[in-house]
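Task: sequence design from structure.
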Protein backbone atom coordinates (compact mmCIF):
# COMPACT_ATOMS: atom_id res chain seq x y z
CA UNK A 1 0.00 0.00 0.00
CA UNK A 2 1.46 3.33 -1.04
CA UNK A 3 1.52 6.53 0.96
CA UNK A 4 -0.81 8.08 -1.63
CA UNK A 5 -3.34 5.33 -0.99
CA UNK A 6 -2.98 5.85 2.76
CA UNK A 7 -3.72 9.54 2.30
CA UNK A 8 -6.72 8.78 0.08
CA UNK A 9 -8.09 6.44 2.74
CA UNK A 10 -7.52 9.06 5.45
CA UNK A 11 -9.50 11.61 3.46
CA UNK A 12 -12.23 9.06 2.78
CA UNK A 13 -12.44 8.31 6.51
CA UNK A 14 -12.70 12.04 7.27
CA UNK A 15 -15.52 12.34 4.73
CA UNK A 16 -17.42 9.41 6.25
CA UNK A 17 -17.02 10.65 9.84
CA UNK A 18 -17.99 14.25 9.12
CA UNK A 19 -20.50 14.00 6.25
CA UNK A 20 -23.19 16.05 7.96
CA UNK A 21 -20.94 18.94 9.03
CA UNK A 22 -19.22 19.00 5.64
CA UNK A 23 -22.58 19.06 3.82
CA UNK A 24 -23.82 21.97 5.91
CA UNK A 25 -20.66 23.95 5.13
CA UNK A 26 -20.62 22.94 1.46
CA UNK A 27 -23.88 24.83 0.92
CA UNK A 28 -21.85 28.02 1.41
CA UNK A 29 -20.10 27.26 -1.90
CA UNK A 30 -23.38 28.19 -3.63
CA UNK A 31 -24.53 31.52 -2.17
CA UNK A 32 -26.70 32.30 -5.20
CA UNK A 33 -28.49 28.93 -5.30
CA UNK A 34 -31.80 28.63 -3.42
CA UNK A 35 -32.07 26.08 -0.62
CA UNK A 36 -35.12 24.12 0.55
CA UNK A 37 -37.00 25.05 3.74
CA UNK A 38 -34.01 26.36 5.66
CA UNK A 39 -31.90 23.23 5.06
CA UNK A 40 -28.65 22.84 3.08
CA UNK A 41 -30.48 21.12 0.19
CA UNK A 42 -29.93 23.10 -3.01
CA UNK A 43 -32.68 23.51 -5.58
CA UNK A 44 -33.89 25.17 -8.75
CA UNK A 45 -37.09 27.25 -8.46
CA UNK A 46 -38.51 25.27 -11.40
CA UNK A 47 -38.30 22.14 -9.24
CA UNK A 48 -40.40 23.42 -6.33
CA UNK A 49 -44.21 23.45 -6.66
CA UNK A 50 -46.18 25.76 -4.35
CA UNK A 51 -47.85 22.77 -2.72
CA UNK A 52 -48.14 18.97 -2.90
CA UNK A 53 -48.54 17.49 -6.39
CA UNK A 54 -50.02 13.97 -6.79
CA UNK A 55 -47.22 11.66 -7.86
CA UNK A 56 -49.28 10.25 -10.71
CA UNK A 57 -49.59 13.79 -12.08
CA UNK A 58 -45.88 13.94 -12.95
CA UNK A 59 -45.30 13.22 -16.65
CA UNK A 60 -42.24 11.08 -17.43
CA UNK A 61 -40.43 11.02 -20.77
CA UNK A 62 -37.59 8.65 -21.66
CA UNK A 63 -34.87 9.47 -24.19
CA UNK A 64 -32.72 6.31 -24.29
CA UNK A 65 -30.56 7.57 -27.15
CA UNK A 66 -29.50 10.80 -25.44
CA UNK A 67 -25.71 11.19 -25.35
CA UNK A 68 -24.27 12.77 -22.20
CA UNK A 69 -21.56 15.40 -22.72
CA UNK A 70 -20.88 16.84 -19.26
CA UNK A 71 -18.27 16.32 -16.55
CA UNK A 72 -17.58 12.65 -15.82
CA UNK A 73 -15.04 12.99 -13.01
CA UNK A 74 -12.07 11.48 -14.81
CA UNK A 75 -10.10 14.70 -15.26
CA UNK A 76 -10.08 16.22 -11.78
CA UNK A 77 -10.95 13.52 -9.21
CA UNK A 78 -8.55 12.81 -6.35
CA UNK A 79 -7.65 9.15 -6.84
CA UNK A 80 -5.17 6.63 -5.40
CA UNK A 81 -2.65 5.02 -7.80
CA UNK A 82 -4.14 2.42 -10.10
CA UNK A 83 -7.75 3.62 -9.87
CA UNK A 84 -9.13 5.18 -13.08
CA UNK A 85 -12.33 6.40 -11.41
CA UNK A 86 -13.59 7.20 -7.92
CA UNK A 87 -15.97 4.23 -7.95
CA UNK A 88 -13.05 1.96 -8.82
CA UNK A 89 -11.10 3.41 -5.87
CA UNK A 90 -14.00 2.79 -3.49
CA UNK A 91 -14.45 -0.75 -4.79
CA UNK A 92 -10.75 -1.50 -4.38
CA UNK A 93 -10.05 0.18 -1.04
CA UNK A 94 -13.25 1.03 0.85
CA UNK A 95 -16.13 -0.94 -0.61
CA UNK A 96 -19.39 -1.06 1.38
CA UNK A 97 -21.51 -4.22 1.29
CA UNK A 98 -23.99 -2.62 -1.14
CA UNK A 99 -22.08 -1.20 -4.11
CA UNK A 100 -23.26 -2.27 -7.57
CA UNK A 101 -23.09 -0.48 -10.90
CA UNK A 102 -26.74 -0.90 -11.90
CA UNK A 103 -28.33 0.87 -14.84
CA UNK A 104 -30.37 3.97 -14.01
CA UNK A 105 -32.71 6.50 -15.54
CA UNK A 106 -30.52 9.62 -15.78
CA UNK A 107 -32.24 12.99 -15.28
CA UNK A 108 -32.07 15.31 -18.28
CA UNK A 109 -34.60 18.00 -17.38
CA UNK A 110 -37.27 18.85 -14.84
CA UNK A 111 -40.08 21.38 -15.05
CA UNK A 112 -42.76 21.65 -12.39
CA UNK A 113 -44.93 23.91 -14.51
CA UNK A 114 -46.18 20.82 -16.38
CA UNK A 115 -45.02 18.95 -14.16
CA UNK A 116 -42.61 16.73 -16.08
CA UNK A 117 -39.32 14.89 -15.80
CA UNK A 118 -37.13 13.84 -18.73
CA UNK A 119 -34.66 10.98 -18.42
CA UNK A 120 -31.92 9.36 -20.45
CA UNK A 121 -29.95 6.26 -19.53
CA UNK A 122 -27.05 6.05 -17.11
CA UNK A 123 -25.23 3.91 -14.54
CA UNK A 124 -25.08 4.20 -10.76
CA UNK A 125 -21.31 4.66 -10.70
CA UNK A 126 -21.60 7.69 -13.01
CA UNK A 127 -22.94 9.65 -10.05
CA UNK A 128 -20.32 8.26 -7.68
CA UNK A 129 -17.49 9.23 -10.03
CA UNK A 130 -18.54 12.88 -9.92
CA UNK A 131 -20.55 13.34 -6.72
CA UNK A 132 -18.59 11.27 -4.19
CA UNK A 133 -15.36 12.40 -5.87
CA UNK A 134 -16.42 16.03 -5.36
CA UNK A 135 -17.22 15.29 -1.71
CA UNK A 136 -13.77 13.67 -1.32
CA UNK A 137 -12.14 16.71 -2.86
CA UNK A 138 -14.02 18.95 -0.42
CA UNK A 139 -12.94 16.78 2.53
CA UNK A 140 -9.32 16.94 1.33
CA UNK A 141 -9.47 20.73 1.32
CA UNK A 142 -11.03 20.65 4.77
CA UNK A 143 -7.93 18.73 5.94
CA UNK A 144 -5.61 21.28 4.33
CA UNK A 145 -4.46 18.90 1.60
CA UNK A 146 -5.89 20.94 -1.28
CA UNK A 147 -6.13 24.67 -1.93
CA UNK A 148 -8.74 24.53 -4.70
CA UNK A 149 -11.73 22.44 -5.78
CA UNK A 150 -11.18 21.87 -9.51
CA UNK A 151 -13.76 19.09 -9.93
CA UNK A 152 -16.45 21.09 -8.13
CA UNK A 153 -15.54 24.11 -10.27
CA UNK A 154 -15.81 22.04 -13.44
CA UNK A 155 -19.31 20.89 -12.46
CA UNK A 156 -20.44 24.47 -11.87
CA UNK A 157 -24.19 24.72 -11.25
CA UNK A 158 -25.08 21.57 -9.28
CA UNK A 159 -28.74 21.89 -10.32
CA UNK A 160 -27.98 21.75 -14.05
CA UNK A 161 -28.31 18.11 -15.25
CA UNK A 162 -26.41 18.97 -18.42
CA UNK A 163 -23.28 19.62 -16.37
CA UNK A 164 -22.97 16.21 -14.67
CA UNK A 165 -24.61 12.77 -14.65
CA UNK A 166 -27.69 13.03 -12.41
CA UNK A 167 -29.13 9.87 -10.89
CA UNK A 168 -32.32 10.67 -9.00
CA UNK A 169 -33.28 8.97 -5.74
CA UNK A 170 -36.96 8.87 -4.82
CA UNK A 171 -36.94 9.85 -1.14
CA UNK A 172 -40.24 9.18 0.59
CA UNK A 173 -41.43 10.23 4.03
CA UNK A 174 -43.97 7.56 4.98
CA UNK A 175 -46.62 8.79 7.39
CA UNK A 176 -49.00 6.45 9.23
CA UNK A 177 -52.08 8.61 9.76
CA UNK A 178 -54.72 7.80 12.36
CA UNK A 179 -57.71 9.67 10.98
CA UNK A 180 -59.69 9.17 14.19
CA UNK A 181 -57.20 11.18 16.23
CA UNK A 182 -55.46 13.18 13.49
CA UNK A 183 -52.10 11.94 14.78
CA UNK A 184 -49.34 10.62 12.52
CA UNK A 185 -46.08 8.76 13.07
CA UNK A 186 -43.13 8.00 10.82
CA UNK A 187 -39.97 5.93 10.75
CA UNK A 188 -36.45 7.04 9.92
CA UNK A 189 -33.52 5.06 8.62
CA UNK A 190 -29.98 5.24 10.04
CA UNK A 191 -27.70 4.46 7.11
CA UNK A 192 -24.85 2.21 8.18
CA UNK A 193 -21.53 3.45 6.70
CA UNK A 194 -20.29 -0.16 6.55
CA UNK A 195 -23.17 -1.07 4.25
CA UNK A 196 -23.69 1.95 1.99
CA UNK A 197 -21.44 4.09 -0.17
CA UNK A 198 -23.55 7.21 0.15
CA UNK A 199 -24.77 9.11 3.24
CA UNK A 200 -23.41 6.59 5.72
CA UNK A 201 -23.84 7.65 9.35
CA UNK A 202 -26.81 9.90 8.58
CA UNK A 203 -30.52 9.66 9.26
CA UNK A 204 -32.83 9.55 6.28
CA UNK A 205 -36.51 9.05 5.55
CA UNK A 206 -37.60 5.72 4.15
CA UNK A 207 -37.98 4.25 1.74
CA UNK A 208 -35.35 5.77 -0.54
CA UNK A 209 -34.20 4.26 -3.79
CA UNK A 210 -32.45 5.32 -6.97
CA UNK A 211 -34.89 5.61 -9.86
CA UNK A 212 -33.92 2.57 -11.92
CA UNK A 213 -35.37 -0.57 -13.39
CA UNK A 214 -35.56 -3.73 -11.28
CA UNK A 215 -32.84 -5.29 -13.43
CA UNK A 216 -30.51 -4.47 -16.30
CA UNK A 217 -32.26 -6.81 -18.73
CA UNK A 218 -33.79 -4.86 -21.65
CA UNK A 219 -37.36 -5.96 -20.89
CA UNK A 220 -37.28 -4.13 -17.56
CA UNK A 221 -36.47 -0.66 -18.93
CA UNK A 222 -39.93 0.20 -20.24
CA UNK A 223 -41.84 -1.91 -17.69
CA UNK A 224 -40.26 -0.12 -14.72
CA UNK A 225 -40.21 3.43 -16.08
CA UNK A 226 -42.62 4.50 -13.34
CA UNK A 227 -42.01 6.44 -10.16
CA UNK A 228 -44.74 4.44 -8.43
CA UNK A 229 -43.37 1.03 -9.37
CA UNK A 230 -39.92 2.03 -8.17
CA UNK A 231 -41.46 3.21 -4.91
CA UNK A 232 -43.43 -0.03 -4.45
CA UNK A 233 -40.23 -2.08 -4.75
CA UNK A 234 -38.51 0.16 -2.19
CA UNK A 235 -41.45 -0.17 0.25
CA UNK A 236 -41.06 -3.94 0.09
CA UNK A 237 -37.28 -3.86 0.43
CA UNK A 238 -36.68 -1.20 3.08
CA UNK A 239 -39.75 -1.60 5.30
CA UNK A 240 -40.28 -5.34 5.01
CA UNK A 241 -36.76 -6.59 4.22
CA UNK A 242 -37.91 -8.25 1.01
CA UNK A 243 -35.39 -9.20 -1.65
CA UNK A 244 -34.95 -6.93 -4.65
CA UNK A 245 -35.35 -10.01 -6.86
CA UNK A 246 -38.92 -10.19 -8.08
CA UNK A 247 -38.12 -12.37 -11.08
CA UNK A 248 -36.93 -9.42 -13.17
CA UNK A 249 -34.04 -11.50 -14.51
CA UNK A 250 -36.55 -13.85 -16.14
CA UNK A 251 -39.02 -11.32 -17.50
CA UNK A 252 -40.83 -8.06 -16.71
CA UNK A 253 -42.30 -7.95 -13.21
CA UNK A 254 -46.04 -8.56 -13.22
CA UNK A 255 -47.02 -5.97 -10.63
CA UNK A 256 -50.69 -6.96 -10.82
CA UNK A 257 -49.81 -10.54 -9.86
CA UNK A 258 -47.50 -9.51 -7.00
CA UNK A 259 -49.90 -9.41 -4.01
CA UNK A 260 -48.12 -6.66 -2.09
CA UNK A 261 -47.82 -4.39 -5.14
CA UNK A 262 -51.39 -5.07 -6.22
CA UNK A 263 -52.77 -4.33 -2.74
CA UNK A 264 -50.82 -1.10 -2.38
CA UNK A 265 -51.70 0.05 -5.89
CA UNK A 266 -55.40 -0.68 -5.40
CA UNK A 267 -55.46 1.77 -2.48
CA UNK A 268 -53.56 4.52 -4.30
CA UNK A 269 -55.51 7.77 -4.22
CA UNK A 270 -57.73 6.54 -1.40
CA UNK A 271 -56.06 5.11 1.69
CA UNK A 272 -52.61 5.65 0.15
CA UNK A 273 -51.86 9.15 -1.07
CA UNK A 274 -48.45 9.96 -2.51
CA UNK A 275 -47.41 13.54 -3.25
CA UNK A 276 -44.39 15.18 -4.81
CA UNK A 277 -43.08 18.22 -2.90
CA UNK A 278 -39.99 19.16 -4.90
CA UNK A 279 -36.47 18.10 -5.78
CA UNK A 280 -33.06 19.09 -4.49
CA UNK A 281 -29.32 18.49 -4.60
CA UNK A 282 -27.02 17.64 -1.70
CA UNK A 283 -24.35 20.39 -1.66
CA UNK A 284 -21.57 17.98 -0.69
CA UNK A 285 -22.18 14.93 -2.88
CA UNK A 286 -24.57 16.33 -5.53
CA UNK A 287 -26.97 13.46 -4.73
CA UNK A 288 -30.30 14.49 -6.24
CA UNK A 289 -33.55 13.53 -4.54
CA UNK A 290 -37.16 13.63 -5.61
CA UNK A 291 -38.99 14.60 -2.41
CA UNK A 292 -42.20 12.65 -1.90
CA UNK A 293 -44.61 11.93 0.96
CA UNK A 294 -46.76 8.82 1.31
CA UNK A 295 -49.70 9.20 3.70
CA UNK A 296 -51.14 5.78 4.56
CA UNK A 297 -54.24 5.33 6.72
CA UNK A 298 -53.36 3.55 9.96
CA UNK A 299 -55.40 0.33 9.50
CA UNK A 300 -53.92 -0.26 6.04
CA UNK A 301 -50.41 0.62 7.23
CA UNK A 302 -50.72 -1.93 10.01
CA UNK A 303 -52.00 -4.54 7.57
CA UNK A 304 -49.19 -4.01 5.07
CA UNK A 305 -46.31 -3.18 7.39
CA UNK A 306 -47.13 -5.03 10.59
CA UNK A 307 -43.86 -6.94 10.12
CA UNK A 308 -41.79 -3.79 9.65
CA UNK A 309 -38.12 -4.68 10.05
CA UNK A 310 -35.70 -3.22 12.60
CA UNK A 311 -32.74 -3.63 10.22
CA UNK A 312 -32.36 -3.92 6.46
CA UNK A 313 -29.52 -4.25 3.97
CA UNK A 314 -28.60 -0.58 4.34
CA UNK A 315 -28.93 0.10 8.05
CA UNK A 316 -31.25 0.37 11.05
CA UNK A 317 -34.93 1.37 11.04
CA UNK A 318 -35.87 3.56 14.01
CA UNK A 319 -39.01 2.93 16.03
CA UNK A 320 -42.03 5.07 15.17
CA UNK A 321 -41.61 8.78 15.85
CA UNK A 322 -44.48 11.24 16.36
CA UNK A 323 -44.99 13.65 13.48
CA UNK A 324 -44.94 16.76 15.65
CA UNK A 325 -43.27 20.15 15.50
CA UNK A 326 -40.73 19.11 18.13
CA UNK A 327 -39.72 15.90 16.37
CA UNK A 328 -39.51 17.57 12.98
CA UNK A 329 -37.36 20.38 14.41
CA UNK A 330 -35.07 17.83 16.07
CA UNK A 331 -34.32 15.90 12.89
CA UNK A 332 -34.22 18.95 10.64
CA UNK A 333 -31.87 21.01 12.81
CA UNK A 334 -30.33 19.01 15.68
CA UNK A 335 -29.54 15.53 14.32
CA UNK A 336 -27.21 14.43 11.49
CA UNK A 337 -29.99 14.01 8.93
CA UNK A 338 -29.27 13.83 5.23
CA UNK A 339 -30.10 17.14 3.57
CA UNK A 340 -32.89 15.64 1.46
CA UNK A 341 -34.50 14.02 4.50
CA UNK A 342 -34.32 17.21 6.53
CA UNK A 343 -35.85 19.22 3.67
CA UNK A 344 -38.61 16.66 3.19
CA UNK A 345 -39.54 16.67 6.86
CA UNK A 346 -39.67 20.47 6.90
CA UNK A 347 -41.78 20.63 3.73
CA UNK A 348 -44.16 17.92 4.92
CA UNK A 349 -44.74 19.76 8.18
CA UNK A 350 -45.36 22.99 6.28
CA UNK A 351 -47.92 21.27 4.02
CA UNK A 352 -49.42 18.88 6.60
CA UNK A 353 -52.97 20.24 6.31
CA UNK A 354 -53.01 19.61 2.55
CA UNK A 355 -51.35 16.22 2.92
CA UNK A 356 -53.86 15.05 5.55
CA UNK A 357 -56.96 16.43 3.84
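Answer:
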Amino acid sequence: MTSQTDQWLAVRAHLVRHRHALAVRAADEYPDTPTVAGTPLLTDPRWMPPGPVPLDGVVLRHHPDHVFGGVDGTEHAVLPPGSPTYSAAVAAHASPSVFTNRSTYRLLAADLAEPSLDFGTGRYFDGVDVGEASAHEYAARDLGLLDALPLRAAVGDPCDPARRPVNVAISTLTLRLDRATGEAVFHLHWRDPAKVGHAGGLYQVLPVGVFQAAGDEPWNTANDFSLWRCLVREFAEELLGASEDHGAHLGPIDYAAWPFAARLTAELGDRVRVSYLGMGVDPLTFATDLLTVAVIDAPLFDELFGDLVAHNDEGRVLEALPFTAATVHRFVHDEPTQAAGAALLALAWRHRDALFA
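The mean pLDDT is 94.
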